[in-house]
Task: structure prediction
Amino acid sequence: MTPSKGLVLVVEDERHIADLQRLYLAREGFGVHTESDGAAGLEAARRLRPVAVVLDIGLPGLDGTEFCRRLRAADDWTPVILVTARDEEADRILGLELGADDYVTKPFSPRELVARVKAVLRRTARPQADGVHTVGRLRLDPLRRTLHRDGEPVELTTTEFNLLAHLLARPGQVFGREQLLSQVWGYADYRDSRVVDVYVSQLRAKLGDASPIRTVRGVGYSAQESGR
Ligand code: CA
Result:
């Protein structure tokens, strides 16, 4: 029996939760591999190349935030969905800033988790072959470095363009300010992460009500998804 939707790695130390996740994911046609500690999970991520990782934050040994940090540091961008307890909000935000893609809070419904996994896979799917991003009234062409609103060209600075292109390439994904600084600006120093807010304001001023950029309170920014 070959799973048609690919392998999901579940890293969860509570056996009954892992079993429930496995059951619901398998029912949706995913293959499922489970690990009960962070270090083994990270090793499995490297070895098995799953399509997504469902990651508990509170894990023995290597916790979920450190898992994310190491995964992304190894340039592995496999989608990660965090599973967090209510009292782990700070860790959850840190996890998102370190490159996790989404989260669910315990207690969660297994259906909700499966829906999140499917959503994250939809939005991290490879961009169209021509690489052109269309969202609402905007059309951005990364190769030609052009942006059109309602068919009319919009002039952007290099940084404005890079920031918008980065967000539009991963619609729905939430980026922390530090993440955007390192990925768009190439900074390693996060003391002035408010610079991101300045550029977002500039983009919004230029794009007006066609702006696809959404503020995610307490975390950062994302571009709205088109055609959903
Ligand atoms: Ca746990």
